[in-house]
Design goal:
- It catalyses: L-valine + 2-oxoglutarate = 3-methyl-2-oxobutanoate + L-glutamate; L-isoleucine + 2-oxoglutarate = (S)-3-methyl-2-oxopentanoate + L-glutamate; L-leucine + 2-oxoglutarate = 4-methyl-2-oxopentanoate + L-glutamate.
- One of its GO terms (biological process) is L-valine biosynthetic process.
- The chain has 292 residues and is of the alpha+beta class.
- Helices cover 28% and strands 29% of the residues.
- The protein has 2 domains: 117 residues, Aminotransferase class 4, branched-chain amino acid transferase, N-terminal domain (D-amino Acid Aminotransferase, Chain A, domain 1); 160 residues, Alpha-Beta Barrel (D-amino Acid Aminotransferase, Chain A, domain 2), CATH 3.20.10.
- The strands form 2 sheets. Strands 8, 9, 10, 11, 12, 13, 14, 15 and 16 form a 9-stranded mixed sheet that branches. Strands 1, 2, 3, 4, 5, 6 and 7 form a 7-stranded antiparallel sheet that branches.
- Strand 14 and strand 15 form a beta hairpin.
- The two termini are 38 Å apart.
- The protein binds pyridoxal-5'-phosphate.
Length: 292
């Protein structure tokens, strides 16, 4: 029973309720972020908090949702929610949504609310997934939005496509879904970016149909620092099936190896050597350790 931040106030978790006529609940216009806090030698640190909060504000800007708080206020509130809940490690969820003052498609007149919650959250796809890798299914749902790709926005409170894709994959016994773009090229997971290794080179889909992931950016930097060539370009389904290694990245999923796609074994069917190297570089980085 912890503490939550709502519109500038710290309130008990169980009193953070919302009215059934909340605009965002009906029409799906909301934006959120996912941030992780890690235990480091200097105490708990929120990994790339500024970038996540900037993306939250950018997402709101794209969707024309006015946010009545500054970047600094929102960053400080996220740190405070972690501290007040005595979390050494955990997940932080800031949410910007429209209130119940107004019904109808136009959100004008509905008040913007900002909530920040935090809770302990271990490996998103399980500890074993981080070690052994997961089994993924290419989805029958595509990653697209008819008018706006929303690749710069952590795409609103509307994750319908991702949920449908994930439901379809998990109901078929897979661990996660992989969405293609409207042209049939690889886009991303239901909540993760994707990387592929081929002959020592790291490839990731460009940002025409995948979220501009902050973990993706960290992995590109960590790889380049280690002298690994990184190419951002379109990736076909066949290329993935014949890749040496494939992995997902995301704040929740961290760096999760993929050992099988659509019943095709990837590489040796285990976490590949470059994946392992970048995974440990990532954990060293988020935990503030010198690279091992
Ligand atoms: N793609 C989607 C659709 C997401 O929801 C997320 C969110 O975590 C990501 C990719 C990964 O982004 P990040 O690394 O910034 O968490």
């Amino acid at each position: 029973d912890g503490t939550l931040w709502l519109d500038g106030q710290y309130i008990p978790w169980r009193t953070a309720n919302t009215h059934v006529l909340t605009h965002s609940l009906h029409y799906g216009m909301a934006v959120f972020e996912g941030v992780r806090a890690y235990q480091t030698a200097e105490g708990t640190a929120l990994f790339r908090l500024r970038e996540h909060t900037e993306r939250l504000l950018r997402s709101a800007h794209i969707l024309q949702i006015p946010v009545p708080f500054t970047l600094e206020t929102l960053m400080e509130a996220q740190c405070q929610v972690v501290a007040q809940n005595h979390l050494k490690e955990g997940y932080i969820r800031p949410l910007v949504y429209l209130g119940s003052e107004k019904m109808g498609v136009s959100p004008r007149g509905a008040k913007t609310h900002v909530a920040i919650a935090a809770w302990p959250w271990g490996a998103y796809l399980g500890e074993e997934a981080l070690q052994q890798g997961i089994r993924v299914k290419v989805s029958s749902y595509t990653r697209h939005h008819p008018n706006i790709t929303l690749c710069k926005a952590k795409a609103s409170g509307n994750y319908m496509n991702s949920i449908l894709a994930n439901n379809e994959a998990t109901a078929d016994g897979y661990d996660e879904a992989l969405l293609l773009d409207v042209e049939g090229f690889v886009a991303e997971g239901s909540g993760e970016n994707l990387f592929m290794v081929k002959r020592g080179v790291l490839y990731t889909p460009d940002l025409s149909s995948a979220l501009e992931g902050i973990t993706r950016d960290s992995i590109i930097q960590l790889a380049q620092e280690r002298g690994i060539t990184v190419l951002e370009r379109r990736i076909s389904r066949d290329e993935l099936y014949t890749a040496d290694e494939v992995f997902f990245t995301g704040t929740a999923a961290e760096v999760t190896p993929i050992r099988e796609i659509d019943r095709r074994v990837i590489g040796q069917g285990t976490r590949g050597p470059l994946t392992e190297k970048l995974q440990s570089a990532y954990f060293d980085c988020v935990k503030g350790r010198a690279p091992s």
